[in-house]
RNA sequence: GCCCUCUUAGCUCAAUGGUAGAGCAGCGGAUUCUUAAUCCGGAGGUUGUAGGUUCGAGUCCUACAGGGGGCACCA
């Protein structure tokens, strides 16, 4: 159906071409944006405007339509009597909603008062082969809105506004910092040691250097290296990547603003934060209050400073001063009946977990949180007043940590000690603990001034300002699991990602021994298992499951001689052994063509070509002078595909299905030969 | 990773286990002031995929895929 709509539009494109109308013209000179044109006085002539055609209403000899561009809409009117016949015809027969259109003419006002362009000349500027979403309801499906954000942007004013706001936020932050003497820089995304935060990194591989590299989890240590190098006020709007769960308030690919100022403390930064946030709110929203989904968040006046220890005492009833060790704190938490997921943490991490579990969600109005334990901040300076605490604050709004800033630890000797503590944590199984960053330590040893660093989650800030409750709403293209097949293809699960076969290899072998007796069949099944495993290896699938499928796919072949029944019993046996995955069972059913179960899935083709090719490979080995698999090459097996008389009973069609799993005949024969060579003794070849 | 929930025409949505429908878009026609235009006509579907239960499945069950929400982890 979608294809019909598309075909129709492709046909219109051909007819435009046939009529000598350029279908994808190079350029179009505009005199006004649409919103500008809409505010011109009646009678203004000589206009040239352009936009996407979003609505058309025809009344016999008069047609109204709306164009939309980046900043607005304009109604245009076509009068049949005042236009060349070809123009009128072309517009109604060949233009579609969604196409790009240029129009020349003059401004008039309709009876209902809408400023409208009376079209004197039309220009075709580009075709939409696929239709726009429904004009009234727009695009509602949240999945489509994210995958095809361009349609969401086209159809929803609210979405456009949200992203405009994000752009404005970035621009305002930049200009504010620039005006305060900051310099914007960029630091590496690919790094050999992930550093600057406690998080699990994404790992990727650099081919030329043949080393694993990590995607940046934070720009922190790089920016501080720049302070060593003489930068005094430096910032980066940095993309960060953390390999952790996704939910409405976390993205795995997000944007942080971080800056570092020499000679400042975290308290200087608190004052600066207030100034910056106020400026930002006034610039972007025009006020110091945010309406967030019915909740008013007020940034005017002094923001309270709250101490974490005091919060926990007041709201969770736990006095940290009476719990100087992790054990004592654990006891106090348990005594209060508070349940934390992990209790096997150090004192600082326990305090942090306790705070997140009990009080953080209640910090709605903006406040500065201080009194944060130092041992969860390995890069922060310890407080002179209390070394268990860090010189750190967080700006909490709506229960979200919007800003985290601290006085930086600039003592390289202490920094090494703190890194080593992290190493210990890592060794104890904390995957988020930091690595020792020798390069950073080296930089530190060359000397650092007092520094205060500051970081803000841009995505969260934008969600807050735009009243969104999910960060995915303020990112154009959030990461989604790829969808199999193209539009309209309805691919379903065709990945072949079967796993967790309920039998171990040994158990499968026992089942095999109990059912498969004939020598020929035993060799066929062993060979099939080897080929299936090789296919799994080649495509990154589960090797054990594939191997077992190969071994067990013909369990009933010795007993069941009727071709229309073979594999039914096999499936029954497997089901009785706990094999539930329908994809596996269907692949086994469908490998017997006579049964009439159609092969549709990747896995079906994998099994049928995998088990069939074994016959051709083994037959090819038998005609060699030494009858040994070792001297067989994939090429020569592939050649024998064409010799119809050779091994006649082996189905060439089934083998050819290797192309449906993504292998050429040559590749596939090569893979099969190598797989069988590994088990040659068992095959007697 | 676990739990809940959703997936029906290009889009937005209907259909007590009993013949898959509507609006918009698109197609044909009427219409010189509409703006969710209106009116008439016809067309559009393997109900996400694969199995199962049933005389009969969009509806019930299972597996799988994708989305949304929650838990956990994290900013």
Which percent band covers the strand fraction?
15-25%
Strand order of the largest sheet: 6-10-11-18-17-16-15-14
What is CATH's topology name of the largest domain? Answer: BirA Bifunctional Protein, domain 2
CATH architectural grouping of the largest domain: 2-Layer Sandwich
In total, the number of strands is 18
**Percent helix:** 25-40%
Global shape: flat
- Radius of gyration of CA atoms, rounded to a whole number: 34 Å
The main β sheet shows up as: 8 strands, mixed
The CATH superfamily of the largest domain is Bira Bifunctional Protein, Domain 2
Structure classification: alpha+beta
Number of domains: 4
Q: How far apart are the termini? A: 55 Å
Count the helices. How many?
24
- CATH first level of the largest domain: Alpha Beta
Average per-residue pLDDT, rounded, comes to 88
Which spans of ≥5 residues are poorly predicted at pLDDT below 50?
485-493
Keywords:
BirA Bifunctional Protein, domain 2, flat, 4 domains, RNA-binding, 685 residues, OB fold (Dihydrolipoamide Acetyltransferase, E2P), eight-stranded mixed sheet, alpha+beta, 18 strands, 24 helices, 17% strand
Overview of this structure, please?
The protein is of the alpha+beta class. It folds into four domains: 2-135, Beta Barrel (OB fold (Dihydrolipoamide Acetyltransferase, E2P)); 162-186 and 216-304 and 365-474, Bira Bifunctional Protein, Domain 2 (BirA Bifunctional Protein, domain 2); 308-362, no CATH class; 505-683, Hypothetical protein af1432 (Orthogonal Bundle), CATH 1.10.3210. The radius of gyration is 34 Å and the shape is flat. The chain is 40% helix and 17% strand. The structure holds one RNA strand of 75 nucleotides.
